Amino acid sequence: MKRTAPASLMLLVVAIAFLGCSRQEPAPPAARPAAPPVATGSVSAGTATTPASTVPPAPAAARPAAIATADGESSGVRAEVTELKRTSGGTLSLKFTMINDSDKPVSFGYTFVDPALETTDYGGIGGLHLIDPVGKKKYFVARDSEGKCVCSQKVADIAKGGRTNLWAKFPAPPDDVQQISIVIPHFSPMDDVPLSR
User: Fold this and answer.
1) Rounded to whole angstroms, how far apart are CA atoms 58 and 123?
2) Is there a domain that residue 61 lies in?
3) Number of domains forming the structure of the chain
């Protein structure tokens, strides 16, 4: 009998031991994040609802910055113009917000109408106009074929502490007019308001 068998066997045992020591163990599984708590409240269509207090509130929409402001004749009422822009068709678009920080509502009714068209304008803002002091020209709110203003109409009264977004279209002044005055009935005029494109 040859003596090499035990040596071969010994080499085999050493190789297995070596391989066994060098083999890497798999890493333990990463800890899973904890599941959100399930509310014990109502269940709808087989899914649990979470309490309202755990849902973060949605961010408030940013309001556009005012390019001009005016105080009203009534204390605590003001207007903030957010856009005065040349638009297609040779028109000018005015957007503004009326804010009521007074202790009583702001009524529209006949307050902001063109006196010559008060029945048609009732509840609207047809009495607004623009003044080009250089060209010495007044621009009235655009009107449709029935004489109705192309502007906010049937506007609800603004409760105390409330605000309302309003708009009006005007014929556009010549291209060389870069600034214009905005006149809202019962508000101080807003002079040198820039026109954008």
Assistant:
1) 34
2) no
3) 1
Long-range contacts, 132-139 (Cβ 8 Å, 24+):
132/173, 132/177, 132/180, 132/181, 133/181, 133/191, 134/177, 135/173, 135/174, 135/177, 137/173, 139/92, 139/170, 139/171, 139/173, 139/180
Quick: pLDDT tens for 183-195.
999 999 999 999 9
Q: How far is CA 53 from CA 42, 46, 50, 60, in A?
A: 15, 21, 8, 18
What pLDDT score was predicted for residue 164? 97
Percent of the chain with pLDDT over 70: 69
133 Cβ partners below 8 Å, 6+ apart? 181, 191
Domain that holds residue 130: 68-192
pLDDT at site 32: 52
H/E element holding 168? strand 163-171
Do the strands 68-71 and 77-87 form a parallel or antiparallel pair, or are they unpaired? antiparallel
Nearest CA-CA partner of 163 in 75, 99, 91: 99
- Predicted structure pTM score: 0.67
Within a domain: residue 59? no
Q: Give the position of tokens 């006196």.
A: 115
**Rounded Cα gap, residues 109 and 65, in angstroms:** 28
48-101 pLDDT, tens digit per residue, is 444 444 555 555 567 778 999 999 999 999 999 999 999 999 999 999 999 999
